[in-house]
Every structure is written in C-alpha cells, then in structure tokens.
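Field notebook, page 385. I keep forgetting to write these up properly, so this time I am using the form the group agreed on. The chain and the ligand, pyridoxal-5'-phosphate, are recorded exactly as supplied. Prediction of the bound pose follows.
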Amino acid sequence: MIDFDTYIPREGTSCVKYDLRYQVFGTEDVIPLWVADMDFATPDFILDAMHQRLNHPILGYSFRGQDFNESLARWLLRQHSLQIDPEIVSFSPGVVTGLMVLLLAFTEPGDKIIVQPPIYPPFFEVPLAHHRVVVYNPLLFDGNRYVMDFDDLSIKATDAKMLILSNPHNPVGRVWEKWELEKLSEICLKNDVMIISDEIHSDIIYPGFHHTPFLSLDPKLNKNSVSCFAPSKTFNLAGLSTSAILIPDSEKRRIYNSTLERYHLQMGNIMGNIAFEAAYNQGEEWLKELLAYLHQSVMIASDYIAKHLKPIHLVQPEATYLLWLDFRDFNLPTDKLHSLLIHQAHLGLNRGEEFGIEGKGFMRMNIACPHAVLEKALHNLRNIL
Ligand SMILES: Cc1ncc(COP(=O)(O)O)c(C=O)c1O
C-alpha cells in the first residue's frame, strides 16, 4: 500500500506551488491547490533509479538510448492497448516546449491556430508569443458537461493551419470519446489542419471512462497529426523536463527534430532520461494505487460540495486531478471572489479566466494532495459560505 496520506512539507524546495505563493497570491497563508503537480512523493522505484546513477560521480553529457523510446512504446501498449513503432518517438524538454517547436516547424507567423477554451493557458500563450493568430473554438457547456462545438469548428477550420487538442482536457476534465475525436479529425482532415493531441493527462482517467489515443484512430490521420506524452503528471516528475513527441510521418519527424536541434533543445538531462524509463518500465502498480486514491479524492470533494457547498457546482471530472468548479451563482466579480478565497478561505486556486474568458466565474482546484488537506480546504470553503 502506497502512503499518499502523509503530508510532506515542500516549503524551501524551490517548488513553484508552495514557494511562489507570496508572488502569486500576495500571501503565504493559503493551501496551495493550483499549479498541476502533486503533493505526493515521486515513486521509490524512480528515486532508486536516480540514486543508483548518482553512485557514479560524473554527470557529463548524456544521450537517450533506444530504451527511452521503447519504454514509452511498451507503456502505451500496456496502458492504452496502443501499438506504436518506437521510431516515431522524438524528445522534447517538456510538452509545452514541444508545442512551441511544432509551431515553429510547421506554421508561419500569421497562421491560424485553433484552440478549445477554457483551455490550459500555454495553448494560446505560446502561439501568440510567436505571432500566430489564435482562433478560439470554445467548448459548449450545458451546466453539467462540456462538449465540442463542431459547427463552429467546421467554419473556423477552413483557413486554419493547426489545432491543439487537450486529450483529455485540462481544465474541464473531459475524456473525449472516440466518436468526438473522429468527428474533430474528419473536419481537420477535410481542411488540411494539422492536429496536435496533447495526451499528458491520459494516464489519470477515472472509472467508467476510457482514453482514446489519437494514434489509435484512422491511420490516414498519421500524415498530419502529432501526439504528446510525458510521465510528468502521472508520476510527479515535472521538474525533470522530459517528454515525448510522437510523429508518425517520417518527413514531419525529420523536420521536427531538425527544428529542435536548431534551437539546441535536443539534449535533455540525465536524470530526466532515467526517471522517464523507470516510470514507464515499472509504474503500473503504483499508478493503480494513485488512481484509486485520486478517485476517492474526487468522491470526497464531490460529496462535500453537493452536501455543504450548494452554490458551487462541480463539473464532474472524467480525468485529471484538477477540479473545475462553477462559482457563477455567487455573482461576484472575479477579483472579489479570488480575494475572498485567498483571504477568508485561505485557498490558492487558479482563476477560471486564466483559461480564457469562457472560464469567467470558475475556479480550478488541484486535489492531488492528502485527503486531510483536501478536507481542510473544503471546510475552509464552507466557512466563507
Ligand atoms: C494539457 C497540458 N499540457 C502540458 C502541460 C505541461 O507540460 P510540460 O510541463 O511538460 O511542459 C500541462 C501542465 O499542466 C498540461 O495541463
């Protein structure tokens, strides 16, 4: 049994989530439930592999062997029944860096890039920073669940170059169904829009839902699509900046790799490589326990909100350890709501508007923490009601 219950203080470890609280919230007196990493220890088998390497005292330049690609290929087969050729795996120092390299490799300034807000902010920030035009295809929300707006997409895809998909979706927690991905692909294929499927959250899926890897769809999509994976969310390794960009088309892969090299981003780091392989080679049992714990966390939050926090509505997550909370019934301006949450409830959450204007009135809450911390956070919320 893995112990996810023990609280591990993280202050003083240069960690964004705790050590930047003052900069982000103006006070250190908040339970930090924001940036997407977990307050759980990285699994022992990963730390052991890293310690083992440290027994050798020289940490010079290193390279990734074939095991890097194969460990991911085997993981995808075991976890998602997806068979890939390990050759299609390229490196990136992080998924967001990978998105940037893909943009630089396959689009020009002024090209239109479609994103589906509310969405993880770098999906629009990175294209904007590189002078691409961001085209918003907002998700539709019926008060319970988000779906894609295919009619709007059909119009916007006609002159777009690329679509960046969060599969599953951060922050709304949707696990896209196969038919939804097929419909999206059909529209993109018809309009020659390249699809980037970011599957960084695909290992954290709740019972009753099933992740469809983009690479499992019709092989004719392989010419113009790319999938991104990383062990960083699943095994809490975000500080190691190591991820994988899967590009089935060999010419596109060549162009991606040469762009990566042009910006000298191909090196990676020795500890990231070791952790990546250990995670994907040995992570199955640990992940099962993590998922069981997180599923309990979702139920704790969901029951508590339904019982005691009536004006707040939880969008039931199908994936990810991020809850998307609808505070619109409070009828408060965002700044006031945020200030109330920080100074009265002592909670550090992400404001929905960070994910696009469609997130106005919502908050994102990271529940990857011990149950006792989550319960305290929920009690704090009740107190402000
Ligand atoms: C959808 C999505 N993609 C990418 C990332 C970050 O990836 P990386 O740290 O590898 O750049 C996140 C982090 O929350 C995310 O939610």
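OBSERVATIONS:
- The chain is about 40% helix and 15% strand.
- The mean pLDDT is 97.
FOLLOW-UP: compare against the apo run.
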